[in-house]
Protein backbone atom coordinates (compact mmCIF):
# COMPACT_ATOMS: atom_id res chain seq x y z
CA UNK A 1 0.00 0.00 0.00
CA UNK A 2 2.75 2.44 0.96
CA UNK A 3 4.60 1.60 -2.25
CA UNK A 4 1.48 2.37 -4.27
CA UNK A 5 1.14 5.75 -2.56
CA UNK A 6 4.78 6.56 -3.30
CA UNK A 7 4.38 5.54 -6.94
CA UNK A 8 1.25 7.68 -7.32
CA UNK A 9 3.01 10.62 -5.68
CA UNK A 10 6.05 10.34 -7.93
CA UNK A 11 3.83 10.07 -11.00
CA UNK A 12 1.84 13.12 -9.91
CA UNK A 13 5.02 15.14 -9.39
CA UNK A 14 6.34 14.00 -12.75
CA UNK A 15 3.12 15.06 -14.48
CA UNK A 16 3.23 18.45 -12.79
CA UNK A 17 6.85 19.03 -13.81
CA UNK A 18 5.98 18.15 -17.40
CA UNK A 19 3.12 20.62 -17.19
CA UNK A 20 5.47 23.32 -15.93
CA UNK A 21 7.89 22.73 -18.80
CA UNK A 22 5.05 22.88 -21.30
CA UNK A 23 4.65 25.91 -23.57
CA UNK A 24 0.89 25.37 -23.71
CA UNK A 25 -0.07 28.38 -21.58
CA UNK A 26 -3.79 27.86 -22.10
CA UNK A 27 -3.44 24.39 -20.58
CA UNK A 28 -1.47 25.85 -17.68
CA UNK A 29 -4.21 28.44 -17.21
CA UNK A 30 -6.90 25.73 -16.99
CA UNK A 31 -4.84 23.50 -14.70
CA UNK A 32 -3.98 26.41 -12.41
CA UNK A 33 -7.68 26.95 -11.76
CA UNK A 34 -8.25 23.23 -11.31
CA UNK A 35 -5.56 23.12 -8.65
CA UNK A 36 -6.92 26.29 -7.02
CA UNK A 37 -10.49 24.95 -6.90
CA UNK A 38 -9.17 21.68 -5.43
CA UNK A 39 -7.39 23.61 -2.65
CA UNK A 40 -3.90 22.85 -3.94
CA UNK A 41 -2.73 26.44 -3.60
CA UNK A 42 0.96 25.59 -3.86
CA UNK A 43 0.70 24.12 -7.36
CA UNK A 44 -1.87 26.71 -8.38
CA UNK A 45 0.50 29.46 -7.24
CA UNK A 46 3.41 27.96 -9.15
CA UNK A 47 1.40 27.84 -12.37
CA UNK A 48 -0.05 31.32 -11.95
CA UNK A 49 3.50 32.61 -11.36
CA UNK A 50 4.60 30.84 -14.56
CA UNK A 51 1.87 32.35 -16.74
CA UNK A 52 1.34 35.81 -15.21
CA UNK A 53 3.82 37.54 -17.54
CA UNK A 54 2.29 35.82 -20.59
CA UNK A 55 -1.23 37.08 -19.87
CA UNK A 56 -0.25 40.65 -18.96
CA UNK A 57 -1.88 43.06 -21.37
CA UNK A 58 -4.65 40.61 -22.24
CA UNK A 59 -8.28 40.56 -21.14
CA UNK A 60 -7.38 37.77 -18.70
CA UNK A 61 -4.52 39.67 -17.04
CA UNK A 62 -6.43 40.81 -13.95
CA UNK A 63 -8.00 37.38 -13.42
CA UNK A 64 -4.60 35.67 -13.51
CA UNK A 65 -3.09 38.37 -11.30
CA UNK A 66 -5.87 38.09 -8.72
CA UNK A 67 -5.69 34.32 -8.41
CA UNK A 68 -1.91 34.44 -8.41
CA UNK A 69 -2.14 36.71 -5.37
CA UNK A 70 -4.90 34.60 -3.81
CA UNK A 71 -2.85 31.43 -4.19
CA UNK A 72 -0.06 32.98 -2.13
CA UNK A 73 -2.57 34.48 0.29
CA UNK A 74 -4.07 31.03 0.91
CA UNK A 75 -0.57 29.74 1.66
CA UNK A 76 -0.14 32.60 4.17
CA UNK A 77 2.66 34.09 2.09
CA UNK A 78 1.35 37.51 3.04
CA UNK A 79 4.34 39.58 1.90
CA UNK A 80 4.17 38.16 -1.62
CA UNK A 81 0.38 38.28 -1.70
CA UNK A 82 0.40 41.97 -0.69
CA UNK A 83 2.89 42.70 -3.47
CA UNK A 84 0.69 41.04 -6.10
CA UNK A 85 -2.58 42.51 -4.81
CA UNK A 86 -0.99 45.97 -4.76
CA UNK A 87 0.30 45.63 -8.30
CA UNK A 88 -3.12 44.48 -9.51
CA UNK A 89 -5.15 47.41 -8.17
CA UNK A 90 -2.53 49.96 -9.24
CA UNK A 91 -2.31 48.63 -12.81
CA UNK A 92 -5.99 47.66 -13.23
CA UNK A 93 -8.02 50.36 -11.51
CA UNK A 94 -11.18 49.43 -13.40
CA UNK A 95 -10.88 45.68 -12.84
CA UNK A 96 -13.72 43.98 -10.94
CA UNK A 97 -10.94 42.62 -8.70
CA UNK A 98 -9.39 46.03 -7.94
CA UNK A 99 -11.42 46.96 -4.85
CA UNK A 100 -11.05 43.57 -3.17
CA UNK A 101 -7.35 43.53 -4.02
CA UNK A 102 -6.81 46.91 -2.40
CA UNK A 103 -8.65 45.70 0.70
CA UNK A 104 -6.54 42.54 0.80
CA UNK A 105 -3.29 44.54 0.72
CA UNK A 106 -4.26 46.04 4.08
CA UNK A 107 -5.49 42.70 5.32
CA UNK A 108 -2.15 41.05 4.47
CA UNK A 109 -0.38 43.66 6.60
CA UNK A 110 -3.00 43.17 9.32
CA UNK A 111 -2.32 39.43 9.38
CA UNK A 112 1.40 40.10 9.93
CA UNK A 113 0.85 42.60 12.73
CA UNK A 114 2.53 41.13 15.84
CA UNK A 115 1.69 41.37 19.52
CA UNK A 116 2.14 44.85 21.06
CA UNK A 117 5.54 44.09 22.61
CA UNK A 118 7.16 43.74 19.17
CA UNK A 119 7.93 46.17 16.35
CA UNK A 120 4.72 47.56 14.89
CA UNK A 121 5.86 48.26 11.31
CA UNK A 122 3.19 46.01 9.83
CA UNK A 123 0.56 47.62 12.07
CA UNK A 124 1.40 51.08 10.71
CA UNK A 125 1.35 49.69 7.16
CA UNK A 126 -2.07 48.12 7.77
CA UNK A 127 -3.49 51.37 9.16
CA UNK A 128 -2.13 53.40 6.26
CA UNK A 129 -3.45 50.93 3.68
CA UNK A 130 -6.90 50.70 5.27
CA UNK A 131 -7.20 54.49 5.58
CA UNK A 132 -6.35 54.93 1.90
CA UNK A 133 -8.85 52.20 1.05
CA UNK A 134 -11.65 54.05 2.84
CA UNK A 135 -10.78 57.30 1.06
CA UNK A 136 -10.78 55.65 -2.36
CA UNK A 137 -13.74 53.36 -1.80
CA UNK A 138 -16.53 55.17 0.08
CA UNK A 139 -19.51 52.94 0.68
CA UNK A 140 -17.55 49.75 0.02
CA UNK A 141 -18.90 46.41 1.20
CA UNK A 142 -15.59 46.03 3.04
CA UNK A 143 -16.01 49.26 5.04
CA UNK A 144 -17.38 47.64 8.18
CA UNK A 145 -14.56 45.09 8.30
CA UNK A 146 -11.95 47.77 7.65
CA UNK A 147 -13.23 49.89 10.53
CA UNK A 148 -13.05 46.90 12.88
CA UNK A 149 -9.46 46.18 11.82
CA UNK A 150 -8.48 49.84 12.14
CA UNK A 151 -9.86 49.98 15.66
CA UNK A 152 -7.95 46.85 16.59
CA UNK A 153 -4.71 48.19 15.10
CA UNK A 154 -5.05 51.52 16.88
CA UNK A 155 -5.67 49.75 20.17
CA UNK A 156 -2.51 47.76 19.58
CA UNK A 157 -0.49 50.95 19.10
CA UNK A 158 -1.95 52.31 22.34
CA UNK A 159 -0.88 49.11 24.10
CA UNK A 160 2.59 49.34 22.54
CA UNK A 161 2.98 52.94 23.69
CA UNK A 162 1.85 52.08 27.22
CA UNK A 163 4.11 49.03 27.48
CA UNK A 164 7.14 51.00 26.28
CA UNK A 165 6.57 53.76 28.82
CA UNK A 166 5.86 51.24 31.56
CA UNK A 167 9.08 49.35 30.76
CA UNK A 168 11.26 52.42 31.40
CA UNK A 169 9.48 52.93 34.71
CA UNK A 170 9.89 49.28 35.73
CA UNK A 171 13.61 49.47 34.89
CA UNK A 172 13.99 52.49 37.15
CA UNK A 173 14.99 54.77 34.24
CA UNK A 174 12.86 57.64 35.48
CA UNK A 175 14.07 60.38 33.14
CA UNK A 176 13.38 58.12 30.17
CA UNK A 177 10.03 57.04 31.60
CA UNK A 178 8.94 60.68 32.04
CA UNK A 179 9.65 61.32 28.36
CA UNK A 180 7.97 58.10 27.24
CA UNK A 181 4.94 58.61 29.48
CA UNK A 182 4.45 62.17 28.22
CA UNK A 183 4.80 60.98 24.63
CA UNK A 184 2.21 58.26 25.18
CA UNK A 185 -0.27 60.71 26.67
CA UNK A 186 0.35 63.21 23.88
CA UNK A 187 0.04 60.64 21.11
CA UNK A 188 -3.04 58.94 22.59
CA UNK A 189 -4.83 61.41 24.87
CA UNK A 190 -7.94 59.19 25.03
CA UNK A 191 -5.98 56.08 26.00
CA UNK A 192 -7.65 53.59 28.34
CA UNK A 193 -4.42 53.72 30.37
CA UNK A 194 -4.61 57.47 30.98
CA UNK A 195 -5.12 57.29 34.76
CA UNK A 196 -2.26 54.83 35.24
CA UNK A 197 0.04 56.72 32.89
CA UNK A 198 -0.54 59.99 34.72
CA UNK A 199 0.08 58.29 38.06
CA UNK A 200 3.31 56.74 36.76
CA UNK A 201 4.34 60.15 35.46
CA UNK A 202 3.83 61.59 38.94
CA UNK A 203 5.66 58.71 40.58
CA UNK A 204 8.54 58.86 38.07
CA UNK A 205 8.91 62.57 38.75
CA UNK A 206 8.88 61.96 42.49
CA UNK A 207 11.41 59.11 42.39
CA UNK A 208 13.67 61.07 40.07
CA UNK A 209 13.63 63.96 42.54
CA UNK A 210 14.24 61.68 45.52
CA UNK A 211 17.30 60.18 43.87
CA UNK A 212 18.73 63.42 42.47
CA UNK A 213 21.78 65.33 43.55
CA UNK A 214 20.95 68.26 45.88
CA UNK A 215 21.40 70.84 43.11
CA UNK A 216 18.60 69.27 41.03
CA UNK A 217 16.13 68.34 43.76
CA UNK A 218 14.35 71.69 44.03
CA UNK A 219 13.26 71.87 40.39
CA UNK A 220 12.40 68.19 40.31
CA UNK A 221 10.26 68.28 43.42
CA UNK A 222 8.50 71.31 41.91
CA UNK A 223 7.82 69.18 38.84
CA UNK A 224 6.41 66.51 41.16
CA UNK A 225 3.98 69.01 42.68
CA UNK A 226 2.92 70.11 39.20
CA UNK A 227 2.31 66.51 38.17
CA UNK A 228 0.32 65.91 41.35
CA UNK A 229 -2.08 68.77 40.61
CA UNK A 230 -2.52 67.56 37.02
CA UNK A 231 -3.22 64.03 38.18
CA UNK A 232 -5.52 64.75 41.11
CA UNK A 233 -7.39 67.41 39.15
CA UNK A 234 -8.33 64.82 36.54
CA UNK A 235 -8.71 61.81 38.84
CA UNK A 236 -9.71 63.07 42.31
CA UNK A 237 -11.11 59.69 43.39
CA UNK A 238 -8.37 57.58 41.84
CA UNK A 239 -7.25 54.33 43.41
CA UNK A 240 -3.80 55.93 43.44
CA UNK A 241 -4.98 59.08 45.26
CA UNK A 242 -3.55 58.12 48.67
CA UNK A 243 -0.07 57.39 47.31
CA UNK A 244 -0.25 60.54 45.18
CA UNK A 245 -1.06 62.56 48.31
CA UNK A 246 1.91 61.05 50.13
CA UNK A 247 4.29 62.03 47.30
CA UNK A 248 2.81 65.52 47.15
CA UNK A 249 3.29 66.06 50.87
CA UNK A 250 6.91 64.94 50.71
CA UNK A 251 7.61 67.20 47.73
CA UNK A 252 5.77 70.17 49.24
CA UNK A 253 7.62 69.79 52.54
CA UNK A 254 10.91 69.89 50.68
CA UNK A 255 9.88 73.00 48.77
CA UNK A 256 8.66 74.75 51.91
CA UNK A 257 11.93 74.15 53.71
CA UNK A 258 14.06 74.54 50.57
CA UNK A 259 15.72 71.25 51.40
CA UNK A 260 16.87 72.31 54.90
CA UNK A 261 15.87 68.90 56.25
CA UNK A 262 18.44 67.32 53.93
Summary, kept brief:
This protein is mostly helical and 262 residues long.
- Helical residue percent? over 70%
CATH class descriptor of the domain at 193-262? Mainly Alpha
Our measurement of the CA-to-CA distance between the termini, rounded to an integer number of angstroms, reads 88 Å
CATH topology of the domain at 193-262: Methane Monooxygenase Hydroxylase, Chain G, domain 1
Strand content: under 5%
Largest pleated sheet: none
What is the helix/strand order? HHHHHHHHHHHH
Structure class: mainly alpha
Number-wise, the strands total: 0
- CATH architecture heading of the domain at 193-262: Up-down Bundle
Count the DSSP helices.
12
What would you call the shape? elongated
**Average pLDDT, all residues:** 93
Cα radius of gyration in angstroms: 29 Å
Poorly predicted ranges: 3-9
Structure characterization notes:
78% of the residues lie in helices and 0% in strands. It contains twelve helices and no strands. The protein is elongated, with a radius of gyration of 29 Å. Helix 7 (121-136) runs antiparallel to helix 8. The chain has a domain at 193-262: Up-down Bundle (Methane Monooxygenase Hydroxylase, Chain G, domain 1), CATH 1.20.58. It has 262 residues and is mainly α. The model is unreliable at 3-9 (pLDDT under 50).
